[in-house]
Structures are given as structure tokens and as C-alpha cells.
UniProtKB/TrEMBL annotation:
It comes from Drosophila simulans (Fruit fly). Pfam families: CRAL_TRIO. InterPro entries: CRAL-TRIO_dom, CRAL-TRIO_dom_sf, CRAL/TRIO_N_dom, CRAL/TRIO_N_dom_sf. Residues 105-270 form the CRAL-TRIO domain. GO terms for molecular function: phosphatidylinositol bisphosphate binding. PROSITE patterns: CRAL_TRIO (PS50191). This is Uncharacterized protein, isoform A. Gene3D superfamilies: Alpha-tocopherol transfer (1.20.5.1200), CRAL-TRIO lipid binding domain (3.40.525.10), N-terminal domain of phosphatidylinositol transfer protein sec14p (1.10.8.20). PANTHER family: ALPHA-TOCOPHEROL TRANSFER PROTEIN-RELATED, SD01558P. One of its GO terms (cellular component) is membrane.
Amino acid sequence: MTTSSGRRTMPTIEHKLNITEEEVPEHIRRLAQEQGECPSSKDKVIEQFRNYILEHNECQPHRSDAKYLEKFLRARYWKIENSYKLLCSYYKFREQNKSFYEKVRPLDLRHVGQSDILTVTPYRDQHGHRILIYRFGLWRPNRVTVDDIFRATIVLQELGSLEPISQIVGGVGIFDLKDLGLEHILHLSPSVAQKMIALLVTSMPIRTSALHIVNQNWLFNAAFKIFKPFLNAAMREKLYIHGSDMTSLHKHINPEHLPKRYGGLHEDYSYTLWLDMLKEQCSGNSVQKDMEQLGFIFD
């Protein structure tokens, strides 16, 4: 959009989940087929996956309907064995971190949103990715616990995994390390690093296509040493370090799809707006029911 003076403006952005297959654009449908998704044999592959789960019996998913199993297959390019490994990893993470799911009230995480530590863009980049943004320099550990950051991240990841578009293309992450200090490094134990990588790389039914590090300072090397052992070779190839050079970031994400603080055109959108969306748009619908089945509470 442009104004009468010719200045570029952004359209009004709506916080909305795209949870129907009908919302998948044609070019992303083609991408899905390139990834191994075949409309004519999809039901057969899902049934084979369901039987594979029963035969191996290493984990017991709480659902086995086609819609649920499909997101694990999409996350691993319709390869049954890899999809099964992801499924087991997901349930192992849930079992080891029950406090991140059970009896968690997403609407009570407003304090995390108000701190601006993390959010997900309500818009998508040129490839269809939503962008998960962390601004760790704003984190005050005495006000927001590490566990609450994990809970807030999981809510976003679980919501994203309900979107067919995101199931197909995955998402991208930006770690903004401006003002990262010793008080933050002291809370980044190997256990915390392992859980973060599990959420973003190995244990959720939504792929992270790339991680971008921006505005890092001298403490980054100390933080990276904690995370590096948990990054596999494939993920290291998707890790990009840009410093304060936003033109480097723009080679991957078009500035039309970035906040102004990263040389883009968008305003910042708070995490709390997603909580408002949950409260106003999802009360009593399939999204809330899916989340409640995972242990989240809405009342």
C-alpha cells in the first residue's frame, strides 16, 4: 500500500491462525508435493504411519487421527521412520517437562508478553514462514522465570503446529542479543540450552528452517559454547550470525516482512496480542480443544 505522497505503508495486520487446508496457497501446495506429500496417496501413508506407531509401541500419542499424525509427517517430509522418531521425541519431551504443559493457563502468561522477551509475527515472510523473535536483552530473570519463557514458547509452537502452512514450510527464528548481559548468561545452563534446542529443532512437530543471530556482543561466544553441543550438523548449517548488519539479514528475510528495528517496515507486535486472539477467537472452538487435550487450561 502507498499513501497519496507515495510513502510505503503496511496494511492492517490481523492476529489470526490459518488452521484450514483451504488457506494453503497454491505455491505452498506445490512445495508440499516436492517434500513428498502426494494427495492421492496421503491417506494411505497416514494409515501406514499409524500402523508403524502401533507396531513399535515406543510412545503412546494421545491422538492418532489423520489430522494430528499429518503434522508429524509434514515436519519430516513424509518419511515414516523419521516422523516416528520425532513423535517419540515430542512425547519424551512432554513427559520430562510436564510443568510446561499440565495445568498451564496460557492467558496467565501475559507478564511474559508485556516484557517483550518473545513474540511471533502475525504476518509471514516471503517463503510463508512466521518469525519467532527473542529479545533476550530485555529479559529480567527476577521477574520472568526461564520456565515461563519455555511455557510461552511452547504455546506459540503448539499453535503454529495447527497451521497447515506452517506444517509445510516451518518457521524461522531471530535471536536478538542486544544488551545481553552476565545476568542472562548465568541462567543459560546446559539443561536450559538442551530444552531450547529441543523446542526449536528436535522435538516439536514444526520445523525451524533457519535461526538468525543479530546484535550479538562479546558475551555471545560464552552463550554459544553452551548451545553448540546440542546443535546437529544440519542445524549448524541453518544458523546465521549477522551482528548489527541488517543487510545481511535481508538476504534471507525480505525487509517487507521484518519489524522496523531490523530494517523492515512493520511495527512490533506483542506476544499479548496472540493471547488476546486465543481469548477472543478460540474460546470453545477446535483450537482451544486441541490445546486442552495437551493439558492447557482455559477458564
